[in-house]
Amino acid sequence: MTASSVSVALTGSGGSGVMTAGAMLLEAAAQAGWYACMTRSLGPQIRGGEAAAMLRFSATPVESHGDRFDALLAIDWGNAARFADEIPLDGESLTLGDPKAGEIPEAIRAMGAHHADLALVQTAKRIGGGRPNMVALGVIAALLEIPDPALARTLERVLARKGPDAIEASRAAVAAGQVLARDLPALPKLPALGETSRDGRWQISGNEAVGLGALRGGVRFVAAYPITPATEVLEWLAPRLQQVGGVLVQAEDELASINQIIGASFGGVPSLTATYGPGLALMTEGIGLAVGSETPVVVVDVMRGGPSTGIPTKSEQTDLNIALYGLHGDAPHLVVAPNSVADCLFTAQWATHLAESLQTAAILLSDQALGQTRAVLPRPATAHFEGGRKTMERIDGEYLRYATNASGVSPMSLPGVAGGHYTADGLEHNPHGTPSSLARDHIAQLDKRRDKLLGYDYGEHWAQIEGDGSTAIVTWGSSTAAAREALTELAADGHHCRLISLRLLSPTLPEKMDEALAGVTRLLVVEQSHDGQFHRYLRAHYDLPAEVRSFCRPGPLPMRAIDIRRSLQEWS
Amino acid sequence: MSESQVAVAPLTARDYKSATKPVWCPGCGDFSVLSTITKALAALGLAPEQVAVISGIGCSSRIPAYLNTYGFHGVHGRALALATGLKVARPDLTVLVTGGDGDGFSIGGNHFLQACRRNADLTYIVMDNQVYGMTKGQASPTTEPDWERSKLTPGGPGINPFKPLVIALASGATFIARGSSSDPNGAARLLAEAIQHPGFSFLHILSPCVTFRPEQREWRKAVHPAPVEATDDPGRAARRLMTDDGFNLGILYRSERKTYQPELHARVTDLAEFDAEFQL
To answer: Average pLDDT, whole number, for chain B?
Structure first.
């Protein structure tokens, strides 16, 4: 029985080592030549709450979760019932757990999977320094038929810092797990791949990719306040900024974060902050200041369930409205969204380049599903966007900071340049930068700030367009992977559809969209939101085909290909 | 000096003033503080392009536009945050922050505490007139509880005034001084010392609002030089600042502490080095 992908979930209480085992499984599968992704799902507790590592393995690139899971292994059952909706099982699935670590919860048993007991605790105890999570790793590795050399290399790589004793204990626990797996029913098989197929591949999370993209784009100053699920962007950047002569300042709050990066950028250093919705809400006044004073900044929002504190550890695409419309006044700015883990790298780099080139604020909308998913990917393509800010090297004669011109982008003078002094201002101003309440100055500067965004050539990066057909899905962000998978499955049945995934959400490009929608008579709008924010946005800004349907569903349940496929199939 | 350059006369206070006419009322103390700033910059001989003056919102926050230096007139209460970002990213610049009591101690209060704690090399000049002037005369954090002249707080605000110098001390500021707009030269000397002080320096300037607090014209008679020299003992400073009459002028506390300035030295020049951690 071979399969195109195999999905496995590991659950346990916090501290049981679920995430460690999951990460090692991901690494080992990658070493064996497969693609894979792992999404973390956590309960609200700081420590000791329930945790789930959801993994999917495939011979081809994979970034979303499947319609069902082939296996669920519980290191302990803790509050695993809370994951019942996120880990769909069926009669073909296998659940595994140690009777000594609790009863299988009814919500999970009710899904009808085949269950087998697994003596994880007892097996681990027999090994000095052995832990149940490493036994679990051995069990799953054996069920997936991950070759021993790949597993051994993973143990050495991941546990290198813990020393030879820890590696040996884990090796023994994994071997014991492999023995336990002999008595278990088989899982579907992935095609065996040569280890060389892994060459050149990367393993990266969306949050790390945003950090790397920002560095590549030229960001050298970051100020931010910790917030889930954006914190890893900051934790990845902090030490690396130091290495490249930059700095990350932990600010007292998001009000300080946004204003600090405006200050650093005014000084000429490309700057970024990262947050989630509540932080973005606090920053909106400052983002307006960046827009009005034409100071480039990048604001990363790793979205989670909202409103308010919402669901801190789980994903949703519901900060679209605030990102687009949250600023007061007429405040044109950039809103961009990566549509895959790899694209987090590209889009963060692009966003930095756009903000710098256009001297405005760019809001990048990632989400928990991208940010905290770790994926094995083909090596991301290298983009050549770096910096892009027009500056004045020297000043001859009078300097007009906000001079109007055809592009709307007026070169910035940076502190230190003699004769280029000006006062950047949140007050409306004349071309010199002097505060002005005259109608003609207001209109001229409003035009300047709008036209520089509309006149810019965004190339083909504004959207990712794949496939063809009179039916299309239009989507954005992390929903793209599930939509793509649904269309791939439909194409296999002979139904060909188009996929349009918007990377540039603001400004809107109606002519480009007209081209993308040419020949489309039926459009399905796919997004992870309860109120259909994306659907309303499309309705407001674009001419859509006569037949439009919205498939919108809130988090925390992940978008799945099966639901998208069904809503297309039902539409006939 | 290259051959094409010729020796130029040293800059005077006037050279630091822009052509923009202030929006302030005649008699406002802030005119004097503007002159204090230009005098201090001239006394230190700082090149105007190496100076950035950052402010928030309020009457006194208008100052950057009146100077021939780089400036940023940002949003209400966030001047210290913006200035911190600028100074950390550009340690070569002299960064001054100007504003009023409402901007600094109410809406921006937390940034004031954190700036004192952080000790970045900023100089913060607060023009205190115990009133919101730009919005036409409401009680500020330093207004007396029984001040009854605002329609917004009939019977007076009823809460104790914020004590900026004591709070600065408790929050870790390393330079605390008080000046008066009635003595622009004395204030300029204090400001020059504040600018030269490494780390965060706080200069509180009594600057009357003649429109909404005309009684503050009397401040010129109440101010007097502090009777004792600056101390570096926080305990002694606390007692002094808690008990002083609010009109002691001079440097009241000065100490040394490590300045917040992360090193900006690139050890990695090829970003491709960061790819390694992601490669299988």
So the answer is: 96
Determine how β-strand A35-42 pairs with β-strand A373-377. antiparallel
pLDDT computed for residue A193 by the predictor: 79
- Contact between A289 and B49 using a beta-carbon 8 Å cutoff: no
B238 in a structural domain? yes
CA distances from B220 to A21, A480, B181, B248 (A): 73, 69, 8, 12
pLDDT, one tens digit per residue, over B59-103 is: 999 999 999 999 999 999 999 999 999 999 999 999 999 999 999
Overall average pLDDT of the B105-113 stretch? 98
A257-292 pLDDT per residue, tens: 999 999 999 999 999 999 999 999 999 999 999 999
Q: Where are the alpha helices (DSSP H) in A88-131?
A: 106-109, 120-125
Q: What mean pLDDT is predicted for residues A67-96? A: 94
Assign A221 to helix, strand or coil.
Answer: strand
**Encoding tokens for residue A561?**
């290909």
CATH 3.40.50.300 is held by the domain A5-199 = no
Angle between helices A254-266 and B109-118 (to 10 degrees): 60
The answer to whether residue B5 sits within a structural domain is no
Question: Would the CB atoms of A263 and B84 count as touching at under 8 Å?
Answer: yes
Specify the CATH number for the domain of residue B228: 3.40.50.970
Asked if the C-beta of B73 comes within 8 angstroms of chain A's C-beta atoms, the answer is yes
- A161 or B121: which carries more pLDDT confidence? B121
Q: Residue B2: inside a domain, yes or no?
A: no
Q: Among B71, B86, B280, select the one facing A30 at the smallest CB separation.
A: B280
Residue B161 lies in a domain: yes
Average pLDDT over residues B254-267: 96
Which top CATH class is A459-569?
A: alpha beta
Q: Which B-chain residues 134-153 have CB contacts (< 8 A) with chain A?
A: none
Which residues, in sequence order, are CB contacts of A160 under 8 Å at separation 6+?
A167
Contact A247 B89 (CB under 8 A): yes
Low-confidence winner among A74-83, A270-279, B162-171 (lowest mean pLDDT): A74-83
- For residue B6, the model assigns a pLDDT of 60
Give the DSSP letter string of A438-498. -HHHHHHHHHHHHHHHHTS--GGGGEEEE---SEEEEEETTHHHHHHHHHHHHHHTT---E
Query: Can you count the helices (H) and strands (E) in chain A?
Result: 18, 21
Q: How many CB pairs under 8 A join A and B?
A: 176
A204, A259, A424 member nearest B81 (Cβ): A259
Q: What is the mean pLDDT of residues A480-504?
A: 96
A386 has pLDDT over 90: no
Q: Which two tokens stand for residue A461?
A: 């990066």
* Residue A47 predicted with pLDDT over 80: no
Is B8 at the interface with chain A, CB within 8 A? no
In CATH, the number for domain A204-377 is 3.40.50.970
Strand partners, B222: none
Q: Rounded to two decimals, what is the model's pTM?
A: 0.97
- Alpha carbon distance A387, A381 (integer Å): 18
Select the residue of A200, A259, A425 nearest B73 (Cβ to Cβ).
A425
Q: Count of domains in chain B?
A: 1
Q: Is A420 a residue whose pLDDT tops 90?
A: yes
Is-same-fold flag (A204-377; A459-569)?
yes
Nearest CA in chain A to B85: A260
Contact flag A198-B78 (C-beta cutoff 8 Å): no
Residue spans of the domains in chain A: they are 5-199, 204-377, 390-456, 459-569
- What domain range includes position B174? 13-278
Report the residue of chain B nearest A256, measured CA to CA.
B81
ipTM over cut 0.95? yes
Over residues B147-161, mean pLDDT: 97
Quick check: A259 and B88 CB within 8 A? no
pLDDT score of B1 more than 70: no
Q: Which of A423, A427, A428, A434 to probe by mutation at the B interface, max B CB count within 10 Å?
A: A423
Cβ contacts of B268 on chain A, cutoff 8 Å: 240, 243-244
Nearest residue, CB atoms, A423 vs list B71, B87, B93: B71
